[in-house]
Structure formats: C-alpha cells, structure tokens
Structures
1.
Amino acid sequence: MRFDTKIAIAVRGDLEQWQKLNVTAFLASAIAFGVPETAGKPYEDGSGNRYLEMFRQPVLVYAADGALLTTMRERAAGRGLPMMIYTEELFSTGNDDDNRAAVGAVTADELNLVGVAIHGPRNAIDKVCKGAKLHPLWQWCTPAPVAAALIGL
C-alpha cells in the first residue's frame, strides 16, 4: 500500500546501539501523540484480548551525522512540517520537565541534535531527508520489495 504521507526518523550514526533505539522510540512517540491521524485502529487477538493502536503506516529510519540532522530540522521547519528533536543533553536528564528545560536552554542553531522525527507529504519528506541513508538495520530487516515500495523506488 502506498501512503500519501511518510514518517521519517533520523538518528546520528555514531551513537551507541542503546542510544539509537532509545532516540528512535522517543521520537516515534512524539509523532504518535503529535500527529494523531498516524495511528491505526486497536488490535484484538482471537481470544478477545485488546491491544493498543500502532502507526497505520511504516516508519522510515535513517542514519545521518549531526550536520545533516541540523539541515533536516531546518528543512522541516521551513516547510512547517510537524517534527520532534532529540538532543545529546537528553541522555543526561531523567524526566520530561528536565528534557524540555534542556532543549529550551539553547537556540535552534545551537541544538546538539542526535535525532529528528518528521511527518508530512511524501515529496516533502523526501526533500527534507535528502542526503540521509536508510539506517543499515532498517534495510536489513525490511524485505527488498517492501522497502522499494515504501521509499518510492
């Protein structure tokens, strides 16, 4: 299925594996809460147990360096796309209030980005993510025909 929109998450490639997973999870939660139309319907198994909704569409995960993450944030902001950032300082905070204070303590051009999540029209996301490479683990775990369909090949 081809969607009109894309969800893209880019993480800095030099992070430790646990950091990449942590950043990806937190950024995905921002899209889920901030862009409610990305959610599908609740699940139910054959025994009647109910489960929460997931995204209704795939999430593309990219690897990028800090400079490209900054460029991606600027491109997304320039297009007015809903996005979330994750800065290196958030690894040393322990709660949401401290996270917001750490981000609020610096200007946009001073953000030490380790991740960015963006949602928007397919063509806009493609332009925002130009130069980023699909994360090697995303490519490894996604069958080639599915990956090609998702990224529009």
2.
Amino acid sequence: MSRFVDTVVASLAVVALVVCTGDVAGAQGVAALQQLDGRASASLRAQVTVVADSVAHAGLPVAPLVDKALEGISKGADDNRIMIAVRGVANDLGIARRALGPSSDNELAAAVAALRAGSTPAGLTRLRTELPGRQLVVPLSVLASLIVDGAPAQSAIVAVVANARQRDDSGLLAYGRTVSHDIAGGVAPLTAITGTQATPHAMSTFKPAFTGGKTAPLPAPPKPKP
C-alpha cells in the first residue's frame, strides 16, 4: 500500500503546487519559479525559466516543470539531466492537453503523472470520453498507481473507468489502496484489479479485457432501478 500512497501523493502534490501558482501565465511563472531560489544553480534556474516561459504562454501549467526540477535537485542529479527531465515534462503537458481536450491545470498535472507512469495518450482520451463531466484528477492519479504497481496500461484504464462509474473520488482512492495492498501481498496485478471491482455488473464486462487481442468494450453504466 505504501507504493500506492507514494504514487498518488506525488501526483496530488503536483496538483497542489499548480493550485498555489494560479492560472495567469506571469503570476504562475513567478510564483512557481521562486521555489528554485536558493536550491537551483543560476544556470539551471535560467534554463528552467526559458522552458517555463514557453509553457506558460501556451496556457499550460508551470508547476510540474518546477516540481520535476526540484525532484532532480533533491536526488543530486546534474543540471543537464534535470533539464532533460524538465523538457520531457513540458512535452508531456502538451500531449496531455491534446489527449484530454479542455482541462484544468490540476487534470493536466495528473495526466502527466499518468503518462510518465506508462499510460498512452489514447488512454487519457478514453478516460475523458468514458467519464464525461467528471474531474479526472483522482482517476488519473489512481491510473498512474495501478500502472506503477505492474498492471498493463490498457487494463488499468478499463479498471479505473469501471470503478469510477460507480465510486466517488474517495471510493476510487480506496479501490486503489486495496489493489496496491493485494499486489504487495503477492497477488498478480491483473487479478488484483479485477478482484476489487465495485459490482458484479462491472466484473461481467471487465474481465474479457485481459484475455488478449482486441480490448473489450468498457462497461455501460448500470441502468437505474425502476
């Protein structure tokens, strides 16, 4: 379960950083980049600033770039390696926005975490399509956790959608914790994510996705009781 907590906390920490920096490009850049003061070399800060300026003017959040730079600094990475990672996050932000369409900065930050865990852009699009009107911060964070825990990305997407249709965010987080606990206890990832489904309805249409070949259709929402 600790891996699940670490993955989700890391995703939501970036989201929290986005919230603190605001949505206006200039204010966002200043507030986020100030966190590098006293921690990054002058050269690194200048390089991050250039990338951040480009990202902010594209209407994308700067906070994930700063978070990645701070992560590299905390690990003792050299400036070149840190900038490779920062540019990678900038690229992923663009991919995430194209995949999700109109999105909050929080969703984009969580989507980057999912992409870096191993999700495909098509997987992000599928979440948006199958969960219309829902904020995707928690579903994307749980998706990242499932992939990190060893579930194939496509299977993890189906699992998240099946559960998100029948659980609120707190319930979806509880699902992710249960799966992570089961995997840590030796349960195979595919078994863990199918064995913790919300209802028999989800189970009946969920399992075939793991038999290979074409992906099974996502389960339809349960019909309301008369």
3.
Amino acid sequence: MVLALLLAAVVWYGKALERRERISEKQLEASVTLVNVPADMVITSEVPRALVLRVRGPLSRLRGLDPAQTGVVVDLRGAGEGEHEFAVETRNVAVPEGIEVLVVSPAQVPLRLERVIQRRIPVRPRIVGEPAEGMDVGKVDAQPTTVLVSGPRLQLEALRSVTTDAISVDGAEGPVEAVVTVRSPLPLVRILEPLAVRATVGVAPRPEPASRKRR
C-alpha cells in the first residue's frame, strides 16, 4: 500500500513538473507506412520515404524525441487503379504520449496504382562474344518461345520481350546450346513459369561474297 502511494506521488510530481515546463515545438521526419493495399494492385509511382512533422510538447520530451518513435500511416483501403491523392491526417500519425502533432507536410501523398495481370511474353536470348574467324551467328531459338509473367498492367502491355542470362558464342565453330535463366527487365515484373529456357544459337560459316563465287 505504501509503495503504491509512493509510486502515485512520483507520477503526480512528474506530471506537475511537465505542466510547469516550457511548451515547445519541433520539426522532424517520420517514416511512411502504407496499409490496406488492395491485393490485386501494385504501387508503380515513387513512395515517399518520410513526411515532415511539426510537433508540440514539453521541452524535455521533445529533446529526447527520436524519429524512430514516430510514424505516418497512409490507408489505401478501397483504392482503384489510377492516380490518387491520399490525405494524411494528424490522427494517422503515431507519436509518444504527451506529444501533439500540429502539422503533417505534405498533407497529401500522391500514388499511382496499377492492376496486377498475367501475360505471355516472347523470350529473346541474350548473345555475347564473337564466334571463330570466318563464322557468323545465325538464327537464335528458345524453347519454349514464351514465358508467363506477372506485373503492373501498363508495364506488361508495353513489354515486348524478356531476356535471359548471357549465352557466350566466343570462339564457337558450330551451334551453341544452353539452358539459361529468364530475367525480368523491370523490378515489378515477375517471371512465373518457366524460369529457364533451352536456347540454341546457330553458328555457321560466313557466306562467300558473290563476286568471289563468280570467279
């Protein structure tokens, strides 16, 4: 009982000191967390790493306030495809007890959402190196010829092909075959299946010039 009374007195004394302490303001950056992103959507615009807060509270609390103790939550619930301006309200900002949020800047976060779709895209194996002297690189085949990819709708509609790991024909005197991994050209585009293809690179003797044949 005595201990409880003592603790209560300490808390009361601390609060009383805070009430007499100078109220101050401080500006700091707070990280941004996006919540309730629709499952069939992906954000294709740049996401701000932080927003600027102006907060108010007792000077001792503001001096010890670390940006890691704060955070801004932006709710994307129900958002459809396209450009959006998501409002940021002070009630969506997490700060320690005793600190009041005055202003969040900017007050809106612009984001672009695109629907995630799947599509089959042609594979173009990547060839490097030079074949042996007198030889030329000919037809390049991939089996299968297409792969299934997933990604933002507009990006996939503009994507004409995907590439592979490099296939070297350096010094080759005949056809080169290799099983190579398919690579996505864009960060938000994923290769679903197959993850690798068998590529065949035709390497054959360079045709003689027509003038030499007539001789």
4.
Amino acid sequence: MQHEAMILFWWLLFGGTHILGSTIAVRTYVIGRIGNLGFKALYSLVALATFIPLCRVYLTHKHGGQQLFAAGDSLQFITHILMLAAFIVLLQGLATPSPMTTKAELTNTFTPSARGIQRLTRHPQNFAFALFGLSHILVNPYVGDWIFFGGFIVYGVASAIHQDRRTLVTGPEQVRQFQADTSAMPFYAILTGRQRLALQEYNTYGLVAAIIVVILLRLYHPTLFGGFMG
C-alpha cells in the first residue's frame, strides 16, 4: 500500500494547496503583496510542483494494490465514448471565453451571457476532468488506479464548488449573473429552462480537434501510456 498511499498524499497536497491557495483570505493577502499577476504565477508554480510528482508516482507504479474487478470489452467501449466526450467538453471550454477564468480576471473583461458549452455547464474543464477520471476507472481495476483517476473526479467537483462560492463573494456583478443563469451540474440549467442546448454555438474546430485527438490516442496510447487502447 506504500505507493497507493503516496498517490493519495500527492493528490491531497495538490488539491489542498489548489483550493487553499484560492480561498478569499489567502488570495487577498498574497495579491496585496505581489499583485494579481504574481499571485497567478505563484499559484501555477505550486500546482505544477505538486501535480507533476503525482503523475510521476502513478506512472512508475501503475496498477498497484488489490484488483477490484475485471474490465470487459463493454467497459472499454464506454471508456472510448467518455474520452471523446471529455475532449469535446474540454476543447469547447477552452474555445469559449468565460467570465470565471483567470484571463477574464486579469484583463477585467467579463461577459455575463452563456454561450455554447457554458449552457450545458459553467465548469466545462472540471466536467472534462471528471469524465477523464470516470472513463479510466472503468478499465483500470486496481486500487492505485482508482485513487489516481478517482482523484480527477473528486477534484473536478470540489474545485467547481469552491470556485462558485468564492466568485459569488469576490466576483463582479457579471459573474454573479452568469452563475444565476447557468449551472455547475451538467444539463441542469437546460432541464430547468434557464438555458437551451444551442449546438450551433459550438466551435466546429474544437469538435474536429477532439475527434482527431481521440483517434490518435486510440492508436498511440499503448506506446505512450500502455493499456488496452492498442
């Protein structure tokens, strides 16, 4: 259990520093000392300093611990679908400016109206992280795998909740309006009538890029990471 414990340790360190570093008290103090841009740089450095060791520990000790189940062909097919969805959501989120991003905060440009993927969820990147984690725990049946990939699900949900609570207090009126008109939970704003799907607003290049990335991963995953995708 030593390696599984180390994976958990680095997840707690990464997630803990990421969330603690973005609390109102810590942000206010650090920004007051080194400015907003300096805070963002320091925040990113701490994230890299904890996330890289997390990945390194897992990649050098994959499939550690007890096997929990046997992954069948049906689970592998579901994994491919979930990974395609994860890349579509991720790239659509990157292609659609959000008032809750670092760029919006640094440039003081806040657009309150939701567009494209933001109508489905105001946290597309977090949703993509969760889909990535879910897709991989389905076909990696060992305890160490579940700690590593399950961490993406927990982090995606926890950081979205934390960001919502913080920006409700510190964000401008445009951000609060954006939160009122959208939902963190995927599809909830659409189901409750606050938003519509509006597929025509999705970035076409992002959709094509997502498909290409998934095809390349399907071809080269065994070489790059090992696993069943060969």
